[in-house]
Amino acid sequence: MDKIRTGDEVIVITGKDKGKRGVVLTRVDATHLVVEGVNVVKKSQKPNPMKGLTGGIVDKTLPIDISNVAVFNAATGKGDRVGIKTLEDKTKVRVFKSNGELVPAKA
Q: Is residue 85 part of a domain?
């Protein structure tokens, strides 16, 4: 079970975007994910008439390492570590380590 999933609200805890919050858009692999509004770079793009792309400088969101983000806990207003707890009916759920509350499901 992944501790950080697509759709979770996360906060960056280290790096050039420290303190920024965003929603996880995709998981690239086991250790990298793309977060909305985080790690955005300028990239020069050549025009491609076959794909309908115009040339110029575009913003591109690059993946960030999963160790540099933490799931945002709305109750405390900070990033928090996530653990996995097994309920009585044998289902696994994610809980915040600080207060033991369930991590809200994605909308």
A: no
